[in-house]
Amino acid sequence: MKIFLIIFALALFASSCGFRKYVWFISLGYGAAIALIGVGLLFIFSSELTLVTVLQCVLLIVYGCRLSGYLTYRDLKTAYNKRMKGEVKTDDGVSFGAKMGIWISAALLYVLQTSPVTFSLMSHRTTDAFIIIGLLISVCGLTLETTADLQKNKAKQKAPGRFVDNGLFRLVRCPNYFGEMIFWTGVFISGINVYHNAVEWICAIAGFAGIIYVMFGGARRLEIRQNKNYGDDPEYQKYKSSTPIMIPFIPLYSVKDHKWLVA
């Protein structure tokens, strides 16, 4: 319990930037929290690390730094903020209490998401098939997400007012979210051999299910925004009706009517 309280405190500290701009709780703060948790785990278990557990922590650090770095670059060096003006909710009307709720619940989610790595370190595990497979899946997810972000940024620089349908976006409309889901699928799988009781299974499943829910909520939010911006474009309508929104080759083309997904 002490270890999880320390990790929770790290997640709270890293994501506290959201009090300046509340969307940062789940963007810049998200990446910073995951990276700091990875660093924290390396220090907490410094005398008990193995090669595979070091790799697990390093992946969290790389993932978090990449995400926060990309979001910072996008906000500062591209026309993203100008394009999104009026479409992204501001802090106006968001009470301090609401911010506290978002901050605490988001930090808890980050702790649960990374719990498979924590359980691996607590169990003093050695190399097994699950951790190797999980690490490989996470690397694939990170690579896919990074590639999608780079492709989207390049496309928006060339045609800021057009939707992106090249590269990975030919296969799925949200390849960056798909890559994120793959990354956390790998994290979950990597710990399968060390979930020793119902509490550990619940923590790992809750963290995994939570980020999957968030990704589909993000896809719904993006679809609503794109419908508003490109709904009258016949090319977009054709693209939307023929390209899955979230998972390649799975014929799910829209989630905007699923109101249980937070938009």
Describe it.
Keywords: Membrane, Transmembrane, Transmembrane helix. It holds the Pfam family DUF1295. One of its GO terms (cellular component) is membrane. With 263 residues, the protein is an all-alpha fold. It has one domain (2-242). It is built from ten helices and no strands. The chain has helices at residues 2-15, 28-44, 51-77, 80-84, 96-113, 115-122, 129-158, 175-190, 198-230, 234-242. Helix 2 crosses helix 5. The radius of gyration is 19 Å and the shape is globular. The relative contact order is 0.11. The model has no long low-confidence stretch (mean pLDDT 90).
Short summary:
This protein is mainly alpha-helical. The chain has ten helices and no strands.
Number of helices: 10
Report the C-alpha radius of gyration, rounded.
19 Å
SSE string: HHHHHHHHHH
- Overall mean confidence score, pLDDT: 90
What is the number of domains?
1
DSSP strand content: under 5%
Biggest beta-sheet profile: none
Number of strands: 0
- Which segments are poorly predicted (pLDDT under 50) over 5 or more consecutive residues? none
Oligomer: single chain
Protein name: DUF1295 domain-containing protein
Keywords: Membrane, Transmembrane, Transmembrane helix
InterPro entries: UstE-like
Pfam family, one: DUF1295
